[in-house]
Design goal:
mainly alpha, two-stranded antiparallel ribbon, flat
């Protein structure tokens, strides 16, 4: 694993140069829709949009690292759901009775529900990955008032996971260079080697925290008002992305209220198509959310376009 893939890398794409508020609105709408919907086709469209986003900024390798953790948690969701849920009319497999928990009934409805919840989790993780890969932490920090502690905390929190992985990789490489076989030997030997790495990681994290504190103090953080602060200017592309995102959220909320995107799991699965309004609503919302991706593609084909919008 290369932890550097998890960090922001400026590649000059329009998506990486949107106003931070516009980019966060676009990504935030996807999270809200993912939590609002439970229709498999609607959620699958959001995950596919995340994949297209990663392809658009050449960040598939970084996205894969996030998905590995997401798939592990998704497996736990499916396992817990199968062990605890007894609902569902379409029973696929019924186990013998176990002490305390009784028989385990695996139904089509429970499997579908677990798969949809896993899909929702992967969407949220993908959006989190997009925040790290699309928005520079310093640009995100400047959304808040100068000297804001909340903004600083958010910026540090977004950096924490990728930076810890990057530091762990460096410590492990240094240990292997010194002849410490991290993955060799029996279980006890590997556990001892990992404990050494964790100790080094803890010391490195504390040193990094002290360096950050010294850097903040040298720059006068918390000492009073800033002498100069220039907010980012909104451009046409930012307003287009913000407008399309809010419109997609509105259409998605109305669709859920009217039942166009509704889906029930128990006692039996409802049809995927609730009439012609289902594909019409899905297509409309997908096109609205894809507008930033279309603009990004247009700027790649016609580089002069980026400076005009």
């Amino acid at each position: 694993m290369n932890p550097g893939r998890l960090l922001y890398q400026d590649k000059g794409y329009l998506l990486q140069h949107l106003h931070p508020a516009a980019a966060l609105s676009w990504l935030g709408v996807q999270v809200v829709l993912a939590l609002l919907w439970q229709h498999p086709l609607f959620l699958l469209s959001l995950l596919l949009l995340s994949a297209v986003t990663m392809v658009s900024i050449d960040a598939l390798a970084g996205w894969e690292e996030y998905l590995k953790a997401g798939l592990l948690m998704s497996g736990l969701i499916v396992l817990i759901n199968l062990l605890t849920v007894r609902s569902g009319a379409t029973v696929l497999w019924l186990s013998p009775a176990f002490p305390v928990i009784g028989p385990i009934a695996v139904s089509l409805e429970s499997l579908t529900y677990a798969a949809v919840m896993s899909l929702r989790l992967l969407i949220v993780i993908s959006v989190f990955a997009a925040v790290n890969l699309l928005i520079h932490p310093d640009r995100l920090l400047r959304l808040f008032p100068p000297g804001s502690r909340s903004g600083l905390l958010l910026s540090l929190a977004l950096r924490f996971f990728p930076q810890i992985l990057l530091q762990y990789q460096r410590i492990r490489d240094a240990a292997q260079t010194r002849g410490i076989a991290v993955q060799a030997g029996g279980f006890r030997r590997r556990l001892q080697a990992q404990s050494w790495l964790v100790q080094g990681l803890l010391l490195s994290a504390l040193d990094g925290a002290l360096d950050t504190a010294e850097s903040m103090s040298a720059r006068g953080f918390g000492s009073g008002g800033c002498s100069r602060w220039q907010p980012y200017r909104w451009r046409l592309r930012d307003w287009l992305c913000l407008s399309s995102s809010l419109l997609a959220l509105s259409v998605g909320g109305v669709a859920e209220y009217l039942g166009a995107s509704s889906f029930a799991f128990y006692p039996t699965l409802t049809p995927l198509w609730n009439g012609p309004q289902t594909p019409l609503t899905l297509g409309m919302i997908t096109l609205l959310i894809m507008l930033p991706l279309v603009l990004n593609r247009g700027c790649r084909l016609f580089p002069a376009m980026q400076s005009k919008i």
